[in-house]
C-alpha cells in the first residue's frame, strides 16, 4: 500500500425529504446565491422545494450554467457574486453546476488579476467562498470532492482544478430526484461513476486489499442496480444505491494508497472538446481500447475484476482479463451506450493524430499509472476506439 | 436504505514515516500536551519519533492513562490542561488513550460544575479542545470517529460519550507500529474491529447494497490478513491492511443508512466492568450466543455473511446462517480468543442475573436493532455464553 493523506469534511444529508433540511446548514443571515443549469429543476419540483427550504434567507439566482461548465458564463456569475457581496452559494444541479460553483468559490476569493490563471496555472485553492449543493443528477461525485473540470469554448479546452478549500460544506442527496432523470442521463451517470472506479482500480496490484474490495463493491452495486434504475427510476431503493455509489466512486476514499490511471478521462475529455460527445460516453469509447492496449501492465487487476465483479472464475489470468474487458463493453451496451467513436460522428478520421498532437503541444508528462504512455500510444488507443 | 447524515472531517496521515509529518498539522505556537498510556511507546521508539516531530513546540506530557480510561486519572490531566492553558492535545496510543483525550477535549471547554455530567447526562459535545492522535494499536477506530467510552472504577461503570466536536483534527497511522504489538493485543484488535463491523451489519436487510458490500469487504480483509499479522506483525503489507480495516470499521461510513445493533457491546462492557476481561474478548464471548438467540431476526443477514465472507454457498438460509456463526467462532478461536466466559473466570455463576438487573436499574430502552430485547433476553444470552 502506498502512503496517503485523506480528509473529506463534506457533510452528507442523504434520503427522502432531505432538501427541507438544508437551511440549518447555511449560516443564518447569509446572502445566498442559488445557481442552477438549464431549468429542468423548475419542471421536476426541485426548484420549489429548494426555494421553500431557503425561506427566510436573502436569495439571488443565477441559472443557465451549461453542461461542461463554460468559463465565459461563469464570469457573469462571478460579477454577481462580487457586486452583490454574496456570502454563500447553493449549487442545485449535477456535476456541471457543482463544478462551475467550485470555480466561482475559488475565483470569488482569488486576489490575482485574471481568474483564468486559476485554471491555466493550476492554482490550488486553499480557501474558497463557502457553498453547499443539492444534487439532481448522480454521476460525478463533485458533491463530495474538491475537484472540478471547467471548459472554455473559445479554445476548445477542458481544465481541471481543485484544492482543500473546494469541498462543499454540505450536499443534499435525495434519491427521489432520480425519478425525473431521462434514461440517457441515467445511463451516462452509471457509466461515469463506473469508469471513475475503473480509473482508480485498473492499474497493478499494490497490496491494498481493502481499497480493492471497496472499489469492487461499488462496481458490483452499480452493475446490480443499473437495469433497475434504467427500467424504473422511481424505484427508490435502486435509486438510493445508485446515488450513494456514484458519490463513493469519487469522494477520494478508494484512490488512497493505490496507483491511479486517469488516462481514459484525459483522452475522453478531448473527444468532448472536439465533438461535444457526452462525457460519460467518451469514457465508454476509450476505456475498452485503453485496457486492450495496456493489457500486459493491467492484466492481473483485470483478471481480479473479472472474477470478483463479473464472476468469471475459470480460465487463465489472460483469459479472465480478456473476458473482463468484454464484460465491461457488454455492460455499457446493455445501457445503450455505444463504445465506438464512429457511432457518434462521421468525422473521426484524423482524430487520433489531432489528440496526440494536442497532448504534445501542452507539454507531455506521460499518461497512465506509470506515466509511461507517450503521444504515440495515445494515437494508437484512440485509433483502436474508432 | 434509511435516511442518514454523514460527516467525518478527520485528516488521516497514513503510511511509513508519517509521524514525522505531524507538526504541520498543529497550529504554530500551540502549547501541546502529549498524552499516552503505560509507557510502551518509550520502548518501541514511538515516543522518540513523536518528540522529535514536535521539535519547536512547547510540549508537556501526561503519561499513565490506563486501558479502559479511568475517570479519576483523567481528572488529573484536566487539571494540567487548565493550569497550563494547553492549546492542543496529542494522544499517542490506542483506543483507550484516544478516548481519554476525547473526554478531556470536552471537559476542557465544559462550563458546567461537574465534568462527570458529560458522561452521566450524555451531553453531546459540539466544540472541544482540538487534538490529534498518533495511533499505536489498531482496533477501535477512535482515531477517526467522535465517540469515546470512559470507565469509573469506583462505580464499576462504563459510559459512552461523543459529539461532532470530538473528531480528531488529524490522526497519524503508521503501520510500522504494528511490529511491536504483542500477539494478544493483535488478536484483540482484529476481534474488536471485526465485531464492530458485525454490530453494524448483522441485523436485517434494508436494501443498502453498497453499505453491506463495504462491511463485507472490511471483514474479508480482516479474515485474510489476520493469520499474517499474528504470525509476523512486521509484515508491512498485512499490517497496513489490518490498520486501515480497523479504522474503516468504525469511522461512521458503514453504519449510515442501515439499522445497527450494538447489543454485543452493551453486554460485553458489563463483563469488562465485572471481571476486567479485555474488551475484545468480551465481544467474542457474547456475539455467538447473541446471534444464536436472535437467529430468526438475523438469519437473512447471517446467511448473506456466510456466503460472501466465508464462501459458504450451499444449504438453506438457516443452514448457511448457522454455519456463518460457527465460522465466526472458528475465526476467533484461530487467534486464540476463547469464546466462553468460563474460560476467563471461575466466578461466572449469577453473572447473567447481575447484568440483566443492572440494565433494569438503569432504565430499560430495549437492546438490539429493533430495541426489542428485554432484560430477560439479556439474561438468557449471557447464560448461553457461560
From TrEMBL, chains A, B:
Task: Name the family the entry cites.
Answer: Belongs to the iron-containing alcohol dehydrogenase family.
Superkingdom of this protein's organism: Bacteria
Q: Which InterPro entries does this UniProt record tie to the protein?
A: ADH_Fe/GldA, ADH_Fe_C, ADH_Fe_CS, BDH-like
Q: Offer an example of a GO molecular function term for this protein.
A: butanol dehydrogenase (NAD+) activity
Native species = Chitinophaga agri
The UniProt entry's GO CC annotations, sorted and at most eight, read: cytosol
Q: Which CDD domains match?
A: BDH
**Pfam families under this entry?**
ADH_Fe_C, Fe-ADH
Domain (Alcohol dehydrogenase iron-type/glycerol dehydrogenase GldA) ranges: 9-175
Keyword annotations for this protein? Oxidoreductase
Where does the Fe-containing alcohol dehydrogenase-like C-terminal domain start and stop, copy by copy? 188-381
Question: What is the name listed in the Swiss-Prot or TrEMBL entry for this protein?
Answer: Iron-containing alcohol dehydrogenase
Amino acid at each position: 500500500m502506498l502512503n496517503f493523506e485523506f480528509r473529506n469534511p463534506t457533510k452528507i444529508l442523504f434520503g427522502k425529504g432531505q432538501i427541507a433540511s438544508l437551511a440549518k446548514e447555511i449560516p443564518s443571515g447569509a446572502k445566498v446565491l442559488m445557481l442552477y443549469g438549464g431549468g429542468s429543476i423548475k419542471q421536476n419540483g426541485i426548484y420549489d422545494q429548494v426555494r421553500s427550504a431557503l425561506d427566510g434567507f436573502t436569495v439571488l439566482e443565477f441559472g443557465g450554467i451549461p453542461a461542461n461548465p463554460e468559463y465565459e458564463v461563469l464570469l457573469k456569475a462571478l460579477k454577481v457574486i462580487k457586486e452583490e457581496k454574496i456570502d454563500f452559494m447553493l449549487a442545485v444541479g449535477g456535476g456541471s453546476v457543482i463544478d462551475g460553483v467550485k470555480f466561482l468559490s475559488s475565483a470569488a476569493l482569488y486576489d490575482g488579476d485574471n481568474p483564468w490563471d486559476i485554471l491555466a496555472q493550476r492554482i490550488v485553492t486553499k480557501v474558497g467562498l463557502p457553498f453547499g449543493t443539492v444534487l439532481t443528477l448522480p454521476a460525478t461525485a463533485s458533491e463530495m470532492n474538491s475537484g472540478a473540470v471547467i471548459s472554455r469554448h473559445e479554445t476548445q479546452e477542458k481544465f481541471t482544478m481543485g484544492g482543500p478549500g473546494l469541498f462543499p460544506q454540505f450536499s443534499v442527496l435525495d434519491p427521489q430526484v432520480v425519478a425525473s432523470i431521462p434514461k440517457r442521463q441515467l445511463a451516462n451517470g452509471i457509466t461515469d461513476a463506473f469508469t471513475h472506479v475503473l480509473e482508480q482500480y485498473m492499474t497493478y496490484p499494490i497490496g491494498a486489499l481493502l481499497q480493492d474490495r471497496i472499489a469492487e463493491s461499488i462496481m458490483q452495486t452499480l452493475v446490480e442496480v443499473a437495469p433497475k434504475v434504467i427500467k424504473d427510476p422511481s424505484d427508490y431503493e435502486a435509486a438510493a444505491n445508485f446515488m450513494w455509489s456514484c458519490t463513493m466512486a469519487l469522494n477520494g476514499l478508494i484512490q488512497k494508497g493505490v496507483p491511479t490511471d486517469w488516462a481514459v478521462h484525459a483522452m475522453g475529455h478531448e473527444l468532448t472538446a472536439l465533438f461535444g460527445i457526452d462525457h460519460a460516453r467518451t469514457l465508454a469509447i476509450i476505456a475498452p481500447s485503453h485496457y486492450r492496449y495496456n493489457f500486459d501492465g493491467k492484466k492481473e487487476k483485470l483478471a481480479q475484476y473479472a472474477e470478483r465483479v463479473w464472476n468469471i472464475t475459470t480460465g487463465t489470468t489472460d483469459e479472465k482479463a480478456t473476458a473482463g474487458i468484454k464484460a465491461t463493453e457488454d455492460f455499457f451496451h446493455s445501457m445503450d451506450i455505444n463504445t465506438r467513436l464512429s457511432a457518434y460522428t462521421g468525422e473521426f478520421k484524423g482524430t487520433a493524430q489531432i489528440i496526440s498532437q494536442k497532448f504534445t503541444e501542452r507539454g507531455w508528462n506521460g499518461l497512465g499509472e506509470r506515466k509511461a504512455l507517450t503521444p504515440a500510444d495515445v494515437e494508437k488507443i484512440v485509433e483502436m476506439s474508432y
